Amino acid sequence: xxxxxxxxxxxxxxxxxxxxxxxxxxxxxxxxxxxxxxxxxxxxxxxxxxxxxxxxxxxxxxxxxxxxxxxxxxxxxxxxxxxxxxxxxxxxxxxxxxxxxxxxxxxxxxxxxxxxxxxxxxxxxxxxxxxxxxxxxxxxxxxx
Length: 144
Description:
The protein has 2 helices and 6 strands. The chain is of the alpha+beta class. It has a single domain, classed as Carboxypeptidase-like, regulatory domain (Immunoglobulin-like). It starts with a helix and ends with a helix.
């Protein structure tokens, strides 16, 4: 009987150790995060696309993943400076953004990702008219 009792006692003592080996702890914190929201020109979210976040003066990204359903990249800055956020879709769309983070570890102002759509449209039309004008000028000088 004693021989059978010893393995049972050892199994009871080892059970808490085995249970903690498979446990998973978690923490929920109320830290303020930096949120970058990306949308296509038509307003559709840039959903589930590849992204990476690189800290200031960092060579390797500290976060790699995908944007969420609403096109957001969320990260907690651990130092001030210009953070780099790169997002790329399989179809080639993407952005390489610089997000300035202040001493309070929050974004220190919003920077536009680039020119607005109307500015791009006016610029494109102006370039086309400019090319047309130069070609017309060159062709009019060649005629006798």
